[in-house]
Specification:
Blueprint: E1 2-8, H1 15-27, E2 33-39, E3 50-52, E4 84-88, E5 92-94, H2 99-103, E6 110-114, E7 124-132, H3 137-145, H4 147-153, H5 157-164, E8 169-170, E9 176-178, H6 179-183, E10 203-205, H7 212-217, H8 237-241
Helix pairs in contact: 3-4
Amino acid sequence: MQTVICAKWGTRYPAHYVNCLWSMIIRNTRRATRLICYTDDPTGIDSAVITWPLPEVALPPRVANLPWRKVGFWAPDLGDISGDVLFMDLDVVITGSIDEFFDYEPNSTFCVIENWTQRGSGIGNTSVYRFRVGSHPYIYENFQRDPEAILAKFPNSQTYISRTIKEKTFWPEGWCHSFKHTLLPRWPMNFFKIPELPPGTKVVAFTGRPDPHEALDGRWQAPWYKKLYKHVRPTPWIAEHWRL
């Protein structure tokens, strides 16, 4: 049984995002696979998705709704989950088989995207990563001990994880793309050209804005003065993959 996990908290992403993720998962695997969604509100989530409360983690209120919450998954114990688990953010679009994510570098305890905007710096992007449950508990324990010291030292959770973890492997280049950083045509061509999906892509991550439903319709939520360059054409291939 392959296990994929995701996290949903706050109000930015509705249950529809979890349900789309589940539909994309089952369309893109040939193996028995389950999705566990850690959430503060399971309302509207497909009954085929397992829902559990969010992991406990010492979060100061100012970062309670930021991705720092994902540090909780590095706890020594996640209950029923063991072995290698694939984490996926809700704002991803799966466009190819996910089975290779479980097969790649089987001895590695942490496989992650090399962050598109920090190539060569050793920073992973945690939109899609595989980790071995309980293999690096110090990430969680250090944060629990002194969250303020870590928040002062690192700009975000993926930098903290990347700089602290004792072993990591990057996914092959081309498996995971950033819609905004690698697929969106550069200005001013983004006003005229539809972003293309490269062959061999398995996952497209929608970091920041636009979200998948916005890019599908050609919308980019931004202040008016940033719309001079923050623009995306309606992108029809999103609808082929991001659906129930």
